Amino acid sequence: MSLDSALPVADDLAPATDSAVLKRAYSCFPSGVVAVACRIDGPDGTSALVGMAASAFTTVSLDPPLVSLCVQNTSTTWPRLRSAPAIGVSVFSRDQSDLCRQLAGPSDARFTGITPSGTDDGSVFIPDAAAALSCSLHNEIPAGDHTLVLLRIEALRCDPGVEPLVFHASTFRSLEALRERS
Question: Which residues form the signal peptide (predicted)?
């Protein structure tokens, strides 16, 4: 494409240092919402469920099979999850917004009333999720006030027929298929 004349000036841009405007801009991009959870076995034979909700989740690579999520550096949950041999990632289904809020709430009540499933090595999955990924920690990359976490998928199950929960403009939404124009 060649430009025969100058482009119009985009004089309505705000500085990226305005955190309120930056958050609003980030909210324009929809993302899937996941539960990240594991079972941690204690030395006394007891075990505990540890988990959180994450909205900055995306697929990364087929070979090796990688997904990513961003974790706030102030998280007190991630340090417990990161040391687990296996971490479960559950893609919330469209009707699980209350469950997502619960897993984003106080850590002592995150699994109240939930009967999760799990693997022998400690991955934990929420019921009725659109997909369940059993992962191991692949890498962590410092990224400002967050850490970019790369998880390697070791095993999975999925049901593309289950509608996912979507986070957009600071609210939960569901997908709608666009009809093709005839």
Answer: none
CA–CA dist 126, 132 (Å, integer): 8
Please name every residue paired with 91 in a beta bridge, in sequence order, or none if there are none.
Answer: 34, 131
What is the C-alpha separation between 138 and 152, in angstroms, rounded? 6
Domain boundaries, the chain: 33-169
pLDDT per position as a tens digit, 129-155: 999 999 999 999 999 999 999 999 999
Cα-flanking dihedrals φ and ψ of residue 161, to 5°? -80, -10
Beta strands in 42-130 (DSSP E): 47-61, 66-72, 87-91, 117-118, 124-125
Rounded to whole angstroms, the Cα distance separating 108 from 175 reads: 31
Question: What pLDDT is attached to residue 167?
Answer: 86
* Token code pair at residue 161: 């027929």
Q: Which CATH architecture has domain 33-169?
A: Roll (2.30)
Q: What are phi and psi of 65, to 5 degrees?
A: -75, 105
Query: How many other C-beta atoms are found inside a 10 Å radius of the C-beta of residue 6?
Result: 6
> What pLDDT does residue 25 have?
86
Task: Examine residue 79 and say whether the peptide bond preceding it is cis (omega within 30 degrees of 0).
Answer: no
